[in-house]
Amino acid sequence: MINEEKLIKKVRAGDDQALEKLFHLYEPLVNSIVKQFYLHHYDRKDWDQEAMIVCYEAALVFSPQKGKFSSLYKTKLFNHARTLVRYNMARRRQIYSQSIPLEKADIQGSVNEPCRSELSIPVDETYNNFVNSLSHVELIALLTIIGEISTEYAIDHLNIEAMKLIRARARTLQKMRKVLF
Description:
- This protein has 2 domains: 4-104, Rna Polymerase Sigma Factor, Chain: A (Orthogonal Bundle); 123-176.
- It is built from 10 helices and no strands.
- The protein has helices at residues 2-13, 16-25, 27-34, 44-61, 69-89, 94-98, 125-132, 136-145, 151-156, 162-180.
- The longest helix has 21 residues, at 69-89.
- The termini are far apart.
- The relative contact order is 0.07.
């Protein structure tokens, strides 16, 4: 297509209008690829912007001897969309896809910081029986399991040997599993 080749040469020369015309020429291709992917915070304008950037990059590297521009652009856009999805679905960024802006949150009153809960003896008879069945060392192990005291504190200040505490933690967890499950 002669018109396409002229547009690509103009894009390489830095003509923004030629880039827009080239992009609009391939808008149906962009639509077909965008329909295949979903990103939580991407709207149509974001996808168009990404597609225009890829169109520019494809025009810069296009060589008529290697094939058609449409296949190059389609491949580059598809791969770019997959990269965007991969980036957004990465385990360390999944929390962002589940979060909402503070302005949209329905908050009554002030936001409370998480605080340390006081240890209370369970009221239920099953839990009382479980706690009563523990030895002194196992009670301390239970406190380390639930995070009320650190293992370092138990070893240093309560004079419990490290191996003794490890074994007591294992016994406590085993007893807890029997009672609870």
